[in-house]
Amino acid sequence: MWIGIVLGVLLIAAFVGLSVMAGGPKDAFYMVRYAFPHMHRGNLKPGDGAPDAKLFALNGTDTFHIRERNNGKPLVLVFGSFT
Amino acid sequence: MQIFDDYKDHADFLTVYVREAHPTDEWQMKSNVKDDVCYAQPRNLSDRLAIANDFTKRFKYPVPFGVDDMNNAANDAYAAWPERLYIIDENGKIAYRGGNGPFKYYPSEVRAWLAARYGEVKHPETKPAETKPEEKKS
Asked: Which of B36, B86, B87, B136 could form a disulfide with B95 if both were Cys (CB 3.0 to 4.6 A apart)?
């Protein structure tokens, strides 16, 4: 019983902390529901070979690979979205 | 994007457009509504391309652009969601790996890396516009 109570208190504390970080209880819930499944630290580290991937140009027809843009100069990759 | 303007002669830049961070049908933020950035999570490539095009047009975005396929291959390979910065060196190796945004997303670190290699680019401080006192009409 005590373990259950302690776990419950810890869960509530975690949710309160998350609410403060996210900006409210609703945001905390959405963070857990929608953000956590997609947020990964990843395994890449400096010195690793950069992975390649196919991308689409804005016209939706032309494609290219990330590696094609790495031509004798450093390549800065900026990942993101509008929202 | 000031870093792009400052270092585009020395480094290549590529924006990789990935899965939406705060779509209307998932975790929409109040700031999205305020800024009129309201889009549902794309269900197909056309939707994703449409949003990416809206973005580049709205901001007249000058940085070279690529859109991740709907299998999210680039996003997964670089663990990029929701936003992240990397630098790949001339030999195709990871030279800089930024943290996951928003809390660990630091463009200043990219600037520092580029500055260490190519020199710092300084910008003159802009003075606030002088306001003239209103002339009194007699």
From this structure: B87
Is B69–A58 a contact, with Cβ atoms under 8 angstroms apart? Answer: no
- Give per-residue pLDDT as tens, B56-84: 999 999 999 999 999 999 999 999 999 99
The answer to whether the CB atoms of B17 and A71 lie below 8 A apart is no
Q: What is the pTM of this model?
A: 0.83
Q: Which residues of B4-102 form beta strands (DSSP E)?
A: 12-17, 65-68, 84-88, 94-97
CA B85 to chain centre: 9
d(CA A23, CA A48): 36
Which sequence spans correspond to the domains of chain A? 2-69
CATH superfamily of the B2-118 domain? Glutaredoxin (3.40.30.10)
* Tally of CB atoms within 10 A around B48: 25
Cβ neighbours of A43 in B, within 8 Å = 79
Q: What is the pLDDT of residues B4-13, one digit of tens each?
A: 999 999 999 9
Provide, as residue numbers in chain A, all residues whose Cβ is less than 8 Å from the Cβ of B42. none
What is the value of ipTM here, to two decimals? 0.86
Of A2 and B91, more confident: B91
Structure token digits, residue B14: 């590529």
